[in-house]
Amino acid sequence: MTHVYFLESGTASVVAPGTHPLEVGLFGREGMSGYSFVLGNDDPVLNDTYMQVAGNGHRIEAARLRACIDASVSLHRVLLTSLHHYLAQTISTALANGRSKIDARLCRWLLMASDRVGSPKLSLTHEFLGLMLGVRRAGVTEALKTLDLAGLIDQKRGQITLLDRKKLEQNSNGTYLRVHMLT
Q: What are phi and psi of 121, to 5 degrees?
């Protein structure tokens, strides 16, 4: 790992690679890439990271961040706290993927993405959502149609707008966790 990225806007997906890639984590302005680095692990990462919603951010050379962490206990604590919240999210993702139907998983993912971009409007394709949820595009299309007909979202080509966060949360099968921002 040569650099670590901190987003100011946008959303990045942490994806387990392979024949059937699957999103295992999501971060935006509350997180960072390369959490294993915070733990002192310089081994090659086991995942891919993709920018999914365009945005801006900062990158720092891994060696420079290591020196900053070594020099600042408070910085290390903040990054470890962020890692703790990220791990809670990955547990929630595993539960959602293993126990929830597509509709509930989609509700959760839309809420999480909206939290990270700071807007109810998301520029997303059905194909992308299928990849992130580990399901066929047709399944995403049906789930979006159901949410649209229920008045929870409004969808247009490449654009999804969240209309009723409370009902989306209720329909997430208890797997949605509010985002914790880095402080």
A: -100, 125
Supply the DSSP symbol for 151. T
The H-or-E segment that residue 113 falls in is: helix 102-117
DSSP-derived letter for residue 124 is: -
Residue type, 6: F
- Nearest to residue 26, comparing CAs of 77, 96, 74, 76? 96
pLDDT digits (tens, 9 = 90+) for 80-89: 999 999 999 8
pTM for the predicted model, two decimal places: 0.85
Helix axes 62-71, 73-99, angle to 10 degrees: 120
Closest CA to 123 of 68, 51, 36, 53: 53
Q: How many CB atoms lie within 10 A of CB 162?
A: 20
